[in-house]
Amino acid sequence: MEFVNPSDHAESLLAERFRADPRVEQAMQLLLAALSDAQGNITVPRTAQPQLVQHYQQLIDRLGKARGGAPYFPYLASGLGRGALVELADGSIKLDFICGIGVHGLGHSHPSLLKSSVRAALEDTIMQGNLQQHPPSIVVCERMLALANRFGAQLGHCLLSTSGAMANENGLKIAFHNRFPAHRIIALDNCFAGRTLATAQLTDRPQYRAGLPTTLAVDYLPNGDATYSHASQQRAVGELDKLLNRYPGQHAALWLELVSGEGGYYPGTTDFFGRLIDRAKRDGLLVVFDEIQTFSRLSQPFAFQHFGLNDVADIVSFGKITQLCGTLYRESLKPKGPVLSQTFTAASSSVAASAAVLDQLESAGCFGPNGRNMQRHQVFADGLEQLSRKHSGKIQGPYGLGMMIAFTPGDGSSEHATRMVHMMYAAGLMGFVAGHDPTRIRFLPPPGVTTDDNIRMACAILDDVLNRF
Ligand SMILES: Cc1ncc(COP(=O)(O)O)c(C=O)c1O
Questions:
Q1: pLDDT digits (tens, 9 = 90+) for 53-110
Q2: Could you tell me which residues are beta bridge partners of residue 254?
Q3: Is the CB–ligand 1 distance for residue 290 below 6 Å?
Q4: What is the pTM of this model?
Q5: Ligand 1 mean position to 132 CA, how many Å?
Q6: Phi-psi region of 107 (alpha: psi -120 to 50; beta: other; left: phi over 0)
């Protein structure tokens, strides 16, 4: 979809005349042609160029010094890529199946992102904010609401923000504000919600809140077992029942990540979530879906749509692949006071890119039960299964759903996962670790552009790494 300027008199605007200036379109065509030429040689992973290695290492050292610690991977982009392939500043090319932990949904240097960035560069300001907005921000909010409500959800408002943690903070505020004086939250074991003081408290990782004050009272429920057996569902619902009776009226919300991301790629089931939600709603809890990582990766844009949980969505946060973040919530939950605001809602380029990404995901056919996401999952899962048969004992899996896919390396220890993920990186394939006991290696391939060929390439690299592991 092209940006629709909601002004009735757009044609009389000076800005419209500027945007419609033929030189702008000419410049755009030149840039697109130059991009296409530059991308021509990016076809397969390759190693660094020897003459760049020393300078690259100096850059990595400078990065570590400036940010106060070495980066997880010695990764510095050159500024050019093609689909799932990216050139680094040492001249190497990597197959990027982690994409900034799920951010680059169209891979690298996608022409539609160049177009949207150039268009955004024509705006009068880099940043958009609550005090001074531009029409494309309205369009993105309306699109996210329309997308979220297309199977019957009733989300009325969309508040943009610049990080997933902030979108979740806003979600927490909406929940507490509406359930005052309730001050507790219920979440699932192993959940991840971000790194602010509140979301780090919600995140089920004690080391992420070491030395930090307790800001939230969070109660955790056990996740289902591998098959989400009746017994494991009973256990979780029983636990929920106990908590609600132990702290009557004190819980504001049930917080759910429908496929635990950082937790290790454990997708739940409709039955499991449905039973928890039924019980929670009986006591008036609001249901929050954290879709920061899941958005656009399953058979529908939202995971709650994939699991058929449209009727029960009260608050939904989204981010990463959308290039900006946001919180959707029911109209009835609109706060009665100025509790929600922030200087930045998003960069102009993020707003433009967000619309471009949504367009491309739709036109690439990512969604539907037999859409691109689920099909690519099957191809990747088949490849990983073959590898696990060939390299028995060195790899288990696959796990995950849609374009969230993982395997367990070696004995499931974090040492094995760390060693393997770095061997993969050196061999040209980027993934990342997730979860603990076992620690897995996960992939977030870019849904809009990943090809079967990319997946075969990834499996071939993994095969080589496993031979040496
Ligand atoms: C489920 C989930 N929630 C929240 C966040 C936090 O997002 P951000 O890092 O943009 O603050 C993440 C990030 O990985 C996430 O996966």
A1: 999 999 999 999 999 999 999 999 999 999 999 999 999 999 999 999 999 999 999 9
A2: 186, 287
A3: yes
A4: 0.97
A5: 26
A6: left
By alpha-carbon position, which residue is closest to atom 10 of ligand 1?
Answer: 164
State whether residue 391 is helix, strand or coil: coil
Choice from 161, 163, 192 to test ligand 1 binding pocket (greatest atom count within 8 A of CB): 192
Tell which one of 320, 323, 350 to mutate to probe ligand 1, the residue whose CB is within 8 A of the most ligand atoms.
320
What are the residue ranges spanned by the domains of the chain?
121-363, 372-468
Mean pLDDT score of the chain: 96
pLDDT confidence of residue 448 = 97
Residues forming beta bridges with residue 87, ordered by sequence position: 80, 93
> Is the CB of 178 within 6 Å of ligand 1?
no
Whether 211 has a pLDDT exceeding 70, the answer reads yes
Angle between helices 348-363 and 111-121 (to 10 degrees): 150
Confidence at 226, pLDDT banded by 50, 70, 90: confident
* pLDDT over threshold 70, residue 459: yes
- Determine what percent of the chain is predicted with pLDDT higher than 70: 98
Please state the atom number of ligand 1 nearest to the C-alpha of residue 102: 14
pLDDT at 227: 87
Does residue 101 have its Cβ closer than 6 Å to ligand 1? yes
Distance in angstroms (rounded) separating the CA atoms of residues 377 and 173: 36
Whose C-alpha lies nearest to ligand 1, atom 4? 193
What per-residue confidence (pLDDT) applies to 26?
Answer: 98
Can you tell me which residue has the tokens 């076992």? 438
CA of 315 to the centre of ligand 1 (A): 16
CB 433 within 8 A of CB 418: yes
For the Cβ of 164 lying below 6 angstroms from any atom of ligand 1, the answer is yes
Q: How far apart are CA 9 and CA 464, in angstroms?
A: 61
Q: Is the CB of 262 under 6 A from ligand 1?
A: yes
For the domain covering 121-363, report its CATH number. Answer: 3.40.640.10
Among 263, 318, 264, 322, CA closest to 104:
322
Q: Is the pLDDT of residue 6 over 70?
A: no
Considering only CA atoms, which residue is closest to atom 8 of ligand 1? 164
Give distance in angstroms: CA of 265 to centre of ligand 1: 14
Query: Are the C-beta atoms of residues 236 and 221 closer than 8 Å to each other?
Result: yes
- Residue 170 CB–ligand 1 contact under 6 Å: no
Rg (CA), the chain: 23
In CATH terms, the fold of domain 372-468 is Aspartate Aminotransferase, domain 1 (3.90.1150)
Q: What is the spatial distance between Cα 245 and Cα 241, in angstroms, rounded to a whole number?
A: 6
3-state secondary structure at position 65: helix
Six-digit token string for 386 = 């073959």
Ligand 1 contacts CB of residue 267 (under 6 A): no
Residue 462 main-chain phi, psi, to 5 deg: -65, -40
